[in-house]
Amino acid sequence: MIGLGLALALQPASAREQVDVTLVLAVDVSRSMSTRELEIQRDGYAAALAHPDVIRAIGQGAYGRIAVTMFEWAGSGSVRQVFDWTLLETAADAQALSEQVRQSQPLPQRRTSISGAIEHALVRLEASPWEGFRKVIDISGDGPNNQGRPVLDARAKALEQRVVINGLPLMTSDGPGGGFNIDDLDAYYTNCVIAGPGSFLVPVTQWEQFPEAIRRKLILEIGGILPEQPVVRLAQAFNFGSPETSSEPYDCLVGEKIWEQRRWIFDEP
After folding, report:
1. Model confidence over 26-41: pLDDT tens digits?
2. Which residues contact 268 (CB under 8 A, 6 or more apart)?
3. How far apart are CA 269 and CA 250, in angstroms?
4. Which residue(s) pair with 88 in the sheet?
5. pTM (two decimals)
6. What is the pLDDT of residue 174?
């Protein structure tokens, strides 16, 4: 009995229950997105979380459970938590979480700080009550970084912590702020945002694609498998560190440069 007590006393106070993945859903709510787009995005996440294929993917993991949290983001400091860390094991767990997401009301905010979203996601991962065998940030967005630290700095920080970043670039044109977006957002996410072994992105060019895209993305992230579908694009460099995936260097400050040229529209520093 004394030996058991001593063994318990020697266990790390910070020991956390294991799950297959700790997953942060970082959802763009910048004002470049229309009210309709925000609603489609919200409902798409709600439907995906409770989808039978997603539940099946959770059950097939080594631990049979994942931990997930979601927040909305826009400019630096514009973060709103949709739900805190939640353990998903059963269909009932997922359905309850889905209803919580569906009842939320997205609040559009100014600017786009992908770097701020990544940094906040890293803080959320550190605060997780569960220890993920894999740690993943799932980040959606309809434009490049134009506020806060350069996105490559935040990306490098995630790589140092062995966190995978997957992307959901929203390449649509319905929103009111298209003048600050770029045509090759998928290339921007490939070169500047997604990171880590097996990282990938799922471009969305029409909002009708969104529900299926987010469902597929969640299944791949939960299962920790490499995607085979052509619509899913893998990072070409799986080594930690290099942001370049082609022979030509990509300008990861393109969003900041566009803002400097056009910020007079909002008369904002």
Report:
1. 999 988 788 888 888 8
2. 110
3. 26
4. 66
5. 0.85
6. 61
Sign of CA dihedral 127, 130, 134, 136: negative
d(C-alpha 24, C-alpha 130), whole Å: 13
Cβ atoms of residues 126 and 160 within 8 Å = no
What is residue 230's three-state secondary structure? coil
Cβ-proximal residues to 176 (8 Å cutoff; 6+ apart), any chain: 31, 32, 34
Ramachandran assignment for 29, one of left (phi > 0), alpha (psi -120 to 50 degrees), beta (any other): alpha
**Helical (H) or strand (E) element with 201:** strand 200-201
Per-residue model confidence as pLDDT tens digits over 127-179: 999 999 999 999 999 899 999 999 999 999 999 999 999 999 998 766 555 56
How many residues are given for the chain? 269
Helix axes 210-223, 52-59, angle to 10 degrees: 10
Residue 184: CB atoms within 10 A of its CB come to 14
Residue 3 has which token pair? 């030996």
21 close to 224: Cβ distance less than 8 angstroms: yes
Residue 167 · residue 139 · CB < 8 Å: yes
Kindly state the tokens that stand for 206.
């029409």
Give helix then strand counts, H and E, for the chain: 9, 7
Question: What sections of the chain are H helices per DSSP?
Answer: 2-10, 35-49, 52-59, 91-102, 114-126, 151-160, 185-188, 210-223, 254-262
Region label for 162, one of left (φ > 0), alpha (ψ between -120 and 50) or beta (otherwise)? left
Task: End-to-end CA distance of the chain: give it in Å, rounded.
Answer: 65
Mean pLDDT confidence for 38-64: 94
Measured in degrees and rounded to the nearest 5, phi and psi for residue 194 equal -65, 150
**Residue 184 token pair:** 């090759």
